[in-house]
Structures are given as C-alpha cells and as structure tokens.
Specification:
The strands form three sheets. Strands 2, 3, 5 and 8 form a four-stranded antiparallel sheet that branches. Strands 1-4 form a two-stranded antiparallel sheet. A two-stranded antiparallel ribbon has the order 6-7. The radius of gyration is 16 Å and the shape is elongated. By secondary structure, the chain is mostly beta strands. The termini are far apart. The chain has one helix spanning 15-22; strands at 53-56, 61-66, 71-76, 79-82, 87-89, 92-96, 101-107, 109-110.
C-alpha cells in the first residue's frame, strides 16, 4: 500500500535479461534443452512496478551490479535475490557447441 507521498516506480531491465527472467526455466533441469527451440506459450509481460526476483539454484552463483555504488555482489544459491532500485543482473554469455562458438549459452547464473 502506498502512502500519500509515494508513487510507483518502473524498474526497466535490458531486453536480454528481461527475456531470461520470463523464460521460467530451471537452470539445472533444462541444461540439455539449450539451443533447441521450444514452441511453447508466448511469454507473459512483466509488471514493471513489481520487485524483480530470481531464485538462485543450489550450488550456483549470480552476479548483481549496483550502478549507484559501482560495486558488484555475488550471491550463492540456494537463495532468493531481490534487486534494489539501482541494481542489475549481469548476463553471462558463454561459448558452447561443437565446434565451439561464442555466445551460445546465455544465462543469469553460473552453474558448476
């Protein structure tokens, strides 16, 4: 509930991070389905006034960068991450495939 002197604020995210958050894939269970196109229901749009959360899987790590303080923090799972107003997720772009090609795996968390 908002007080009389408060207003809703839209949290904008980069389009690539927004797409990764809306996939709702389990990073551990869906590892083998990378690179395969899956025709499923179209992703929903995110309510930009709601808090941005991401559940970090067990034995995984997520890097969050705070642009105001110019500091990065690493969260190790299992944990629920909630972004602050000046924070963004660091998107990981890893090479993969045979032969190796750059930027084949895009994720928010680093798995072992």
């Amino acid at each position: 509930m908002l007080n009389q002197d408060e207003e809703l604020w839209d949290k904008t995210l980069p389009p690539a991070v927004e797409a990764l958050l809306l996939e709702n894939k389990d990073p551990m269970a869906d590892r083998s389905s990378r690179g395969r196109s899956q025709d499923g229901p179209p992703p929903q749009t995110r309510d930009k006034t709601r808090i941005v959360t991401f559940r970090v899987p067990h034995n995984a790590a997520v890097q969050i960068y705070d642009y105001k303080d110019k500091k990065a923090r690493v969260i190790f799972g299992p944990e629920l991450v909630m972004l602050g107003p000046d924070e963004q997720f660091t998107q990981l772009s890893l090479s993969g495939g045979k032969p190796k090609k750059p930027n084949q795996i895009r994720s928010l968390c680093l798995l072992p």
